[in-house]
Amino acid sequence: MVMDRTITVMGRQEWLKPIDSALQRAISGAFQAAGPVGMRIKDILNGVWLGHPLHPALSDVPIGSWTAAAVLDVLEATTGRKELGTGADAAIGVGLAAAVPAALTGLADWQYLVGRPRRTGLVHGLLNIGATALYTTSLLLRRNGARSAGVVTASMGYSMVLFTAYLGGDLVYRDRVPVNHASTEGMPRRFTPVMAEADLPEGQLTRVDAQGTPVVLLRRGERIYALAATCSHLGGPLHEGELHDDNTVTCPWHGSTFAFENGHIIHGPATIEQPVFETRVKDGQIEVRLAR
């Protein structure tokens, strides 16, 4: 398909790398410089509090508003009813107001991407800025009596929005951004032996395999904890992460922190809790199964 080839070509544009790298460093640096407040803001923008990425939900508002405006513009042109044009103007205003939080949450998600997805996401964001500028211009033209020019400008903006929406869908469905990378599908529901109890060290992250599912074990005295070893955010290896004294682990890729006790998210950017396994020792073997 033409669209797929276009996205492939965009992903190969190496000249974008210095731009996206500098922007990514700037965003991450701003959050880090703000300390605990910055971390809290980042968690809010990522949607940790919602248990779902926030950007997809917010991005629907400007797209829906500008779609409504396009329909109302067409109806006004075909029926001559001026009140429909008033509704189109209002819909454009709603879309512009919603574009700001949608952009902020999009940047919060984008900062963790690498390679082709990062370049695709950069183009997605830049084109959305262009579309927002066109809609701002359209609204000003309408309010200054140049309604026909405003409708044409809005049509250009809507065409751009449709393309950026396609790019966003490609990031989700092809690159799995920002979907759950620790789905419980296929994880063992029955107790499965993974290693000898005598071989599990105290207070160290230990990766094992449970019927094809990577699992990270942690021994604390007589207690053995187990989490899925693949981070739900973007698939980072939790067994290579940082273990804390409060029995939490921080992903080495993007800093999501989870509790071994129940998989709860202590800090994002992950928005989906980590799968937890029940553990037992039988005949000297540690066995795990997905917690019920």
From TrEMBL:
Q: Does the keyword Metal-binding apply?
A: yes
A GO molecular function annotation here is: 2 iron, 2 sulfur cluster binding
Entry keyword annotation includes Transmembrane: yes
Record-linked InterPro entries: DUF2231_TM, Rieske_2Fe-2S, Rieske_2Fe-2S_sf
Mention any Pfam family matching this sequence: DUF2231
Keyword set, alphabetical order: 2Fe-2S, Iron, Iron-sulfur, Membrane, Metal-binding, Transmembrane, Transmembrane helix
Where do transmembrane segments lie in this chain? 90-110, 122-141, 148-168
Start and end residues of each Rieske domain: 192-288
Where on the tree of life does the source sit, at the highest rank?
Bacteria
Its needed co-factors are:
[2Fe-2S] cluster
SUPFAM superfamilies this protein is in? ISP domain
* Protein family membership: Belongs to the bacterial ring-hydroxylating dioxygenase ferredoxin component family.
**What is this protein identified as?**
Rieske (2Fe-2S) domain protein
